[in-house]
Amino acid sequence: MTILTIDIGGSSVKSAIYTDKLEDRNHFFSPPSLNEMQVKLDQLISYYLEKYPIEAIAFSVPGIPNHDTGRVEGVSSLRYIHQFDFISYFSEKYQRPIYFENDANCACKAEVQLGIAGEVKNALFMVIGTGIGGTIISNGQILSGEHAYGGEFGMMLIDGRHELSELGSAVHMARKYSILKGKSYTGEEVFALADQGEIDAVAATEKLYHYLALGIYNLQYMIDPEYIVLGGGITKRRNLLKHILRKLDEIMNYGQVCPITPKIRLAKFGNDANLIGAALTVKSSK
């Protein structure tokens, strides 16, 4: 089966053809308006339709897919994605089956079915991008929660006021650093400057590691999984796990009794997990 799989993110949109692996990848930066997004997606889909016998189109989306209404509900850093009839728009335009799934759930499906998770009973998947999403696996099943918000870890008010999606995101870290310096920087550039010892970049990255570790600590003691799997673009960062574990050591010595140290692993598929998981959503529906 030939599936066009598309991952819509707060910073960029990635795409590929999936049969049993990803091929012919493309990407573009997420535009600022719904109209521009629709134009770019239409151009992208038309490109693939001219080259491949596409049988279905699968989307990984931020927020909460409502399979009854065909809309993307909830909240995300890409606000306009929630403002139109998502499934109807693409199914009517391309006359093909259209599927959508939450981005964190897509990443989770990829790792559980094909990646490092294997026969997992209880785990958390944390996907770190422009925002932070996640999935809870309990007894081998995804827990969506009463209102389908289960796993929206990024909404935690991690310092009492600011969300983990802001404090634990390299994109938001770079925006704050750019304001401080009066010049635009990417997250990768801030990390590179920190490696060189630039004092403000070091401070910015240290805060990021701290808040990610704090979020992980809280999730461990709220849900008590076997392990926590980290995915998203930031997992390509050299020594990310080392820095988070260093901060966890500090947090666990704040004075409380902490008998359990979170077991953390990096996802096998990294930034590809959403694309793969969206395609697997199609296959599991057959």
From TrEMBL:
It comes from the Bacteria. SUPFAM superfamilies: Actin-like ATPase domain. It holds the Pfam family ROK. Belongs to the ROK (NagC/XylR) family. PANTHER family: ROK (REPRESSOR, ORF, KINASE) FAMILY (PTHR18964), SUGAR KINASE (PTHR18964:SF170). This is ROK family protein.
